[in-house]
Amino acid sequence: KLHSDLDKGVGSVKYTLSGDGAGTVFTIDETTGDIHAIRSLDREEKPFYTLRAQAVDVDTKKPLEPESEFIIKVQDINDNEPKFLDGPYVASVPEMSPVGAYVLQVKATDADDPTYGNSARVVYSILQGQPYFSIDPKTGVIRTALPNMDREVKEQYQVLIQAKDMGGQLGGLAGTTTVNITLTDVNDNPPRFPKSIFHLKVPETSHVGSAIGRIRAVDPDFGKNAEIEYNIVPGDGGNLFDITTDEYTQEGVIKLKKPLDFETKKAYTFKVEASNLHLDHRFHSVGPFKDTATVKINVLDMDEPPVFSKPMYTMEVYEDTPVGTIIGAVTAQDLDAGSSSVRYFMDWKNDVDSYFTIDATEGTIATNELLDRESTAQYNFSIIASKVSNPLLTSKVNVIINVLDVNEFPPEISVPYETSVCENAKPGQVIQIITAADKDLSPAGQRFSFKLSSEASNKPNFTVHDYRNNTAGIETRRNGYSRRQQELYFLPVVIEDSSYPVQSSTNTLTIRVCRCDSDGTIQSCNVEAIFLPVGLSTGALIAILLCIVILLVIVVLYVALRRQKKKDTLMTSKEDIRDNVIHYDDEGGGEEDTQAFDIGALRNPKVIEDNKMRRDIKPDTLRFTRHRRPAEDNTDIRDFINQRLQENDVDPSAPPYDSLATYAYEGNGSVAESLSSIDSLTTEADQDYDYLSDWGPRFKILADMFGEESYNPDKVT
């Protein structure tokens, strides 16, 4: 209720209301100022309202007092029940848990005002699920209420939880939710066989590794707690069988580890133990988590194929053995009670099998063709044995026949050797290691010996050192070798084997003399290389020679063409001599020289051959006023030139006088004297080149070339 001090109760004052909910939730009597609620209020929707009120003069419409603000608060009542916002709940707890084991905590929410009365005070209780579980009335924590709850007895539990406000007093509102609790498994049960003896029947023809039966132990646990491991207890027959666990069915699969034979043993008995893989130490006191059962296996008799006495046969025969020679035999038996006879035959796969035959009744193997170890050293084929009573039952065995060698081939040098020796080699130096090979056997099974042939053992050039390990070394016996004297040596080496009869062969090694440096590195091995620059390869030398030959051919062709052109200019007819021009290159004696050449010689070239006298004009000797001091040592030069001038003057074939003739004079006093071939000795054998070694290091190669002993073909070994 609103009231103004200026209101005298005569109706001159009017009250107005504005703010939250004015006109919709709240209304005011304009005359009395009474405020009324025109609809129901919900504290949970809006707990308070802020309003403004004012007193206004009815006549002037002017406010009599300032506007005032006030708050209307909604008082709470218990009109909301508790609610489980997260329900329904799902929880789990291990089986066999002790009393009071924590399961889950639930929580209910009440929308009422917790500060006013007990409208929002919630208390929890169990309506369904006792006596297995309990709940704390204040916190809502659910715990186990019974010990040793067994999952194998009951696995799922549904618990109904109630939350009530007003502290659980009479008249309070309540809400409920459901909690589904599952007992999880623990390994609290050992595996148990449903029976103590298992009987199995197994054919004796069962293959090794095949499954011959299954047994199963029952474990009421779940998951990994129910995983079982099976083992065969050592005892009678246990070594013939094996057992594994099928991971999907947890069954024990018995497999055959060795072949069965009804004729040898008809029954086997052994024990199998089943145990859990994952044990829980809390339940060790319950007892051993394993169980044992007996397995009896009866072997069934089956019609079996023949059995060979050996898993494989190995035989030996010499090569070139006569056809039809028996080299061995195979044996197979029928071990069944009927004991049928056996027939043998070869398993034909290729042409190699045709080298041998087998007796169908006795099983003896004989040669069918001549054998050659060098062609085929070993034969591998199969023999099949079948029962006469049941030819479809067969067995197979491999036969290996090794062909033994007969010594028929001599040993030879294994590879062609390119042997070289340095000119500066010392005695006892090894220049080559040689090995031998024999077609009869591999080198591992043969011993070879090496020696020089009788005709080469007396020559002092090389020797052979046998190392007695199927190798030998070629050693030098001289102090130095000369390529100019002898470039190649041929060394005959005799190689013998150790088989019977002894075979030997003579192999010739070619040894080339090479030029080497001081370290023994080969520089060149050809005689021609002495005169060629060091460092050029054979291909480069051939290319250079080819270019020189092409240039010479071009020069020869050019000269031939020039001569052909000169011949074409000569006239063969006297009547046409005036119509032709004769070209000649001789220069005359000048304009005053009218006697130098006869025109008749141009008409008939043969005339010049008859007239041998010079007809040109001898020029006068010119005198120069310039004087030079004569040289003291030019007498021999002046005499040489005068002699050559006089020879030219009387020579009819000499060029004209005004032609220039040049002569080279080498002088005298040289240490090496004249190198000209003039006045040299006529034969090489008459010359002595020992003096070249005195000229110093620059003439060393010439001294080596001309100072060596002449080549003697009879010394080649």
TrEMBL record:
UniProt cross-references to SMART domains, sorted A to Z: CA
GO molecular function annotations of the record: beta-catenin binding; cadherin binding; calcium ion binding
Residue stretches making up the Cadherin domain: 4-84, 85-193, 194-308, 309-413, 413-531
Membrane topology qualifier: Single-pass type I membrane protein
CC terms in the record's Gene Ontology section: adherens junction; catenin complex
InterPro entries linked to this entry: Cadherin (IPR039808), Cadherin-like_dom (IPR002126), Cadherin-like_sf (IPR015919), Cadherin_CS (IPR020894), Cadherin_Y-type_LIR (IPR000233), Catenin-bd_sf (IPR027397)
CDD domains listed in its UniProt record: Cadherin_repeat
TM segment ranges: 530-561
Role according to the record: Cadherins are calcium-dependent cell adhesion proteins. They preferentially interact with themselves in a homophilic manner in connecting cells; cadherins may thus contribute to the sorting of heterogeneous cell types.
Single GO biological process annotation from the record: homophilic cell adhesion via plasma membrane adhesion molecules
Keywords: Calcium, Cell adhesion, Cell membrane, Cleavage on pair of basic residues, Glycoprotein, Membrane, Metal-binding, Phosphoprotein, Repeat, Signal, Transmembrane, Transmembrane helix
Subcellular localization, as worded in the UniProt entry: Cell membrane
Membrane among keywords: yes
Primary location class: membrane
Source organism (scientific name): Thryothorus ludovicianus (Carolina wren)
Keyword rRNA-binding: no
Record's protein name: Cadherin-12
